[in-house]
Amino acid sequence: MWKLFFNIAWFFSFLIIIPSWRHRFQNWNLYGYREKLNDLLNTVPELKNKKMRLTKGGGSLAFVFDEKYVYRVRKRDAEALDVFPRIAREIRITNALRRFCTVKIPKIQIIHGNKYVFYKTDFIPGVILANLSVKTLNAHSDEIAAQLAKFLKKLHAANPVSITDLTDKSKDKHWCHTDLCSNILIDPETFIITGIIDWEWATWCNVSADFTSLYDRRRKMRRTEIPIKTVIKYYE
Q1: Which of 122, 154, 175 is the last residue of a domain?
Q2: pTM of the model
Q3: Which of 29, 40, 42, 52 is most buried by a 10 A CB count?
Q4: pLDDT tens, 217-230?
Q5: Taking a C-beta distance cutoff of 8 angstroms, is the pair 107, 151 a contact?
């Protein structure tokens, strides 16, 4: 759906006669979608013959090819010098924490385009948890909360030596994702969590940051029992 929308909007953007206005619309409202896709295809030409769909969320555009690989790029601050340090940090953190987690964490590979930096991951099947209906979420809140509590206990107990330089000696701090609400993937048939994505804002902090992030960015999640049940099961 998003691919069709962006292609149509990009086509009609050329009806904007004033070049500076057209350029601003394409890069601000459409996130430079066409320019970024062309940069990716020129950098990885074998993708040109593969089926692609577009998704967007948070601060990123995601180009999904053949439901196998995902190439993400920042919507607006995607210049190489701006984004590279954040991606490099995310790679360090996810590589260190992956073996401690009970759900899949994507393995990131940096792809340097001519102008943009992309991060490639394997495609993890599933839908965003927060996109399911409140009725569905509440009906399966116990099993979802149990999985989240188990994941968070393992995550918060982890302190890999390879990233201790990103921590301090505070005893009340732990590794946290801090942006869970829109980054939990789940199988909509079995309600098994298939992965946790987008670890850009993972940091060493109080565990309350993860509990809060289950609901603070999506009004729908505040209407479900999942956040409170996750906390209860976490401390059982």
Answers
A1: 122
A2: 0.87
A3: 40
A4: 888 999 999 999 99
A5: no
